[in-house]
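Students often ask why inverse folding is considered easier than folding. One informal answer: many sequences map to the same fold, so there is more than one right answer. In these notes we will look at a single instance of the problem. The structure comes first.
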């Protein structure tokens, strides 16, 4: 006799709940308690149900067939009853086909898919390793540039600190010197006061007659020193520009979109000319240019090299420089006669005669209709802005009274940027100098960022529609391209530019480069 515990373990429970089984569905082969009979029948209303006491249950029929419509094994009773009319096949055939399918799948997974995935896994591991190495290399390179950029910023601020210290020392020295002068002079003036009082009190005629007044000297004593302590102006345009200025000295770090790539340097045309040496090129529209050299004739050639027009100078002296006004009139300088001459409707007129002792050399017409001229007196250079025949501005010294331009025999070559900056090529100093429209030095460029082998030798300087500054480097056979703040962008050095001198930008945004000795002009597409 079973113990209560073993009897409890033998209790058969309902398939739908945990209650003891009392009923059984022969059709569905499901054990049921009394409460779950209706639940079972309701859940399968489409099927017949034979509910009997559990002890009268029938053993399940062995499934020997397969119903293709219901996709499952069935017994012969079901084929004749529930699955009557469905397509049935022998279960053994279905099993054999399924085994064949399983064997085929297993073989493909084992011999094809797994080896392929294992190979891909190894390849992916190698790629991941290479990817890691590349990104580590990129991070290291970024850190190197971080160090270089920080050094550059440190250099800039170190220079400003030195500048501030120098200005402080100069101002303190001036004040201390003035203080010492006053300190020495005050006792002397006090003695003069005592002596004068003594003369007045003694009433000695000879001393009164012989009195020499120092009052004018004392009146003219400079009692105050005027100078302005500079302030620091800083501007940050997030992600694009850092600018700092102290006492007229300015430095700018700019992030630029890369508008230029070396692959874009393409020679559109090579124009032969008979002007040798070729010194100046001034574009007219998109397909012509005025050119000049050491000849007394100025020629207008088209992009094919054909001469379209010519002007012979009035004094039969070669033009020192040429430029075009906004109206398209040609202006040239006559060094010997000290004149600026303009050509209107084929006739030459004297526009300006320069002052005594000064002769005109480089020039450019401004956007406002004025003319900038480089005047030379045998050693010194200065820039003069003429409005008609009137001198509007003279530029030759900076805010500290120092000469801006180095003394020398070479002429200054000029160009005006769209922002009204004056760009000056100074071959005497091997420097490009950029001034603002009131004549203050904004920056100087000495060619160092381009890292060329030969000494930087700037000839013509021009600007384009993007405010870029383009300089012909005569010694290094290339062009330097800067942004408007003097930051070096790149060099154009892949177009066989042998001894480039004259420069001009046409209305299509192409640059015309005059090669000094060959007399050729290279028309280059250099911008996107």
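Output (designed amino acids):
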């Amino acid at each position: 006799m079973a113990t209560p515990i073993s009897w409890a373990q033998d209790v058969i429970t309902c398939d739908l709940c945990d209650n003891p089984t009392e009923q059984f569905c022969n059709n569905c082969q499901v054990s049921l308690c009394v409460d779950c009979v209706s639940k079972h029948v309701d859940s399968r209303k489409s099927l017949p149900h034979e509910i009997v006491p559990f002890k009268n249950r029938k053993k399940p029929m062995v499934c020997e067939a397969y119903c293709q419509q219901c996709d499952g094994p069935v017994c012969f009773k079901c084929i004749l009853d529930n699955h009557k009319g469905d397509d049935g096949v022998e279960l053994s055939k279905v099993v054999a086909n399924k085994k064949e399918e399983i064997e085929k799948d297993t073989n493909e997974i084992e011999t094809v898919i797994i080896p392929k995935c294992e190979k891909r896994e190894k390849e992916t591991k190698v790629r991941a390793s290479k990817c890691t190495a590349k990104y580590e290399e990129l991070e290291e390179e970024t850190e190197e540039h971080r160090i270089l950029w920080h050094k550059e910023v440190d250099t800039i601020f170190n220079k400003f600190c030195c500048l501030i210290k120098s200005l402080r020392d100069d101002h303190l020295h001036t004040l201390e010197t003035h203080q010492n002068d006053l300190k020495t002079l005050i006792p002397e003036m006090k003695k003069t006061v005592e002596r004068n009082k003594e003369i007045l009190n003694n009433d000695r005629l000879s001393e009164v007659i012989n009195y020499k007044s120092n009052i004018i000297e004392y009146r003219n004593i400079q009692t105050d020193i005027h100078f302005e302590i500079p302030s620091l102006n800083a501007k940050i345009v997030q992600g694009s520009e850092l600018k700092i200025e102290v006492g007229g000295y300015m430095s700018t770090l700019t992030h630029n979109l890369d508008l230029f790539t070396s692959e874009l340097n393409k020679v559109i045309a090579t124009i032969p000319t008979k002007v040798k040496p070729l010194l100046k090129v001034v574009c007219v529209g998109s397909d012509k240019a005025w050119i000049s050299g050491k000849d007394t004739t100025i020629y207008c050639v088209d992009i094919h090299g054909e001469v379209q027009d010519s002007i012979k100078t009035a004094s039969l002296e070669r033009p020192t420089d040429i430029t075009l006004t906004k109206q398209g009139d040609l202006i040239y300088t006559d060094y010997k006669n000290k004149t600026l001459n303009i050509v209107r409707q084929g006739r030459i007129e004297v526009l300006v005669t320069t002052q005594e002792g000064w002769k005109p050399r480089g020039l450019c017409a401004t956007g406002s209709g004025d003319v900038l001229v480089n005047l030379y007196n045998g050693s010194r250079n200065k820039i003069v802005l003429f409005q008609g025949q009137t001198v509007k501005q003279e530029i030759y010294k900076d805010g500290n009274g120092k000469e801006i331009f180095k003394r020398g025999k070479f002429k200054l070559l000029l160009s005006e940027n769209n922002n009204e900056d004056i760009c000056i090529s100074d071959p005497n100093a091997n420097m490009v100098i950029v001034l603002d429209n009131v004549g203050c030095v904004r920056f100087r460029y000495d060619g160092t960022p381009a890292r060329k082998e030969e000494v930087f030798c700037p000839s013509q300087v021009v600007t384009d529609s993007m405010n870029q500054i383009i300089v012909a480097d005569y010694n290094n056979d290339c062009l330097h391209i800067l942004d408007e703040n003097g930051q070096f962008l790149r060099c154009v050095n892949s177009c066989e530019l042998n001894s480039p001198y004259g420069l001009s930008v046409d209305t299509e945004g192409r640059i015309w480069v005059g090669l000094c000795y060959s007399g050729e002009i290279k028309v280059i597409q250099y911008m996107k």
